[in-house]
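job 3f2a | input accepted
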Amino acid sequence: MAAARALAIMTVFLLVALSTSHVASSLHPGLGVCHARVATSQEKQYHCSPPVTASTKAVLTLNSFEKGKDGGGPSECDNAYHSDEEMVVALSTGWFKNMGRCGHRIKIIANGKSVYAKVVDECDSVYGCDDEHNYKPPCANNIVDASPAVWNALGLDQNVGMEGITWSDSDN
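job 3f2a | predicted structure (172 res):
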């Protein structure tokens, strides 16, 4: 009887662990593993993103745009690095619109607060796992990859690394 109960508890624990890791890896692009190789067909690749509305649902991830940090190379829009104190973001490939949102500001809402941030880069949803992408797998198609300044302004815990948000284009 004790052995059956222990087996049942271990089974439940294993199922919870597996479902949690699947959910986490689907929410955060950096949770996958790359080892100095080009992305394969096993990684999800997205050429489009959900439609942008006045309240587009997305996942906010944390990224440093400073040289030598986790963002990889310079930003796509201006070929420059950006301080962690700047309110800047990278958008998933579909939302980036082939550099069409470069320099535009977007409004991000989370935690009961809103901030504006400038689009400076693409969170590549098609390619990854190489030097150019800092050996990270491709981003999901619903990512707003934000600087620490954005996280701080929204009052979010950077140790979490990802948060559900809404965003929209801004005329400001």
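job 3f2a | The radius of gyration is 18 Å.
job 3f2a | closed
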